[in-house]
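User: Please predict the structure of the protein below. I'd like the answer in structure-token form so I can feed it into my own downstream comparison script.

Assistant: Understood. Taking the following sequence of 137 residues as input:
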Amino acid sequence: MRITLPSLVTVVTVLLTCFHLVAADAPAKESPRFKARVACFNGQLDFGSSCASTCFQPDGTLQAKGNMTCGFPGQVSEVDWSFVERRNDKDVYRFTRRFPADTGATTTTSKSVEFSDSRVVVFEDKFQAVVIEPPKK
């Protein structure tokens, strides 16, 4: 088998083109940097009953999205969140809250928040407070 310079250039060009197309189809996806806990307090912040969900697996793998349902009858929230991007030294999450989710008068509110390693109040009203915070130690 004889390899000529023009055929070698053609093969290399094809390989580089294929590599470029594969790399373009699989962009690097950012992931959260910080372990987080999302909590919903029924009533006032840090008072009364609450529901919580951690945004990481027991092995430490961080999860980019989650959801929870929490509240008393007639005052139930459905909360969804998802990681959006890294911005400077913070993780940005998009939260959506449907309240009261167990009635016919449900409203939907969405909000983006920046989280690093301290509590951020996402939603708060006279019925509930939803926060993203570092996990309890």
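That's the full token string. The first strand starts at residue 37 and ends at 42.
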